[in-house]
Amino acid sequence: MNETNIKQTDYRTKFKEKVEELKETLVPLGKDPGNSCAALTFTSILDVLESDVLKSYYFNNLAIPFSGLASYTSKNNWKGACGAVGGGIAAMGIIMGGQEKAKSSEVPKIYAKAVRFATKFENQFGSLSCEEICGVNTSLNIREYVKNNVWEKKCCNFVRYAVEQVGNLTRKDLNEKWK
């Protein structure tokens, strides 16, 4: 078995372990109003990379607004994407860019992979819209969200799925750019 296969197996295992860990840790993390689905998705994926540079609280803070945007409905009735989608796509940019600024020639590939991720998510859950998949507009009715245990019953699944799919879709980049 060559070194590339060893590393590939290692990342595959690391992502599986992270998804298993999230089965135990997500419910209590989500009950803390200081956490968000986007930030938990994003930072869980970055944890797998085991890079000291990526352990900064700045990355958590960067992803938090994606969760706020998730509950947004525009005046033209556009609805924000699930925070797990935003966090997952942001992590894909980090992974696919590697440990340097993404090369211009790689940007279309990153776009395409993000679309592929979004398509897989939508096929799995029926929509990308936070409101549609959660069944509640959290910016208008957070009490209903909490009362109905939407985090525990639905959102945890979205976060775990996003982490798993990012690992699957970026396997080649993980092995080439995160040795």
Word description of this protein:
With 179 residues, the chain is an all-alpha fold. The chain has one domain. Helix 1 packs across helix 9 and helix 4 packs antiparallel against helix 5. The model has no long low-confidence stretch (mean pLDDT 90).
Write out key terms for the chains shown.
mainly alpha
* Oligomer classification: single chain
Strand proportion = under 5%
Runs in which pLDDT lies below 50 for 5 or more consecutive residues are none
3D shape: globular
Average of the residue pLDDT scores? 90
Structural class: mainly alpha
Structure, briefly:
The protein has 179 residues and is mainly α. It contains nine helices and no strands.
Give the arrangement of secondary structure elements.
Layout: H1 3-30, H2 37-49, H3 57-70, H4 83-97, H5 107-125, H6 130-134, H7 142-147, H8 150-169, H9 171-177
Helix pairs in contact: 1-2, 1-8, 1-9, 2-3, 2-4, 2-8, 3-4, 4-5, 4-8, 5-8
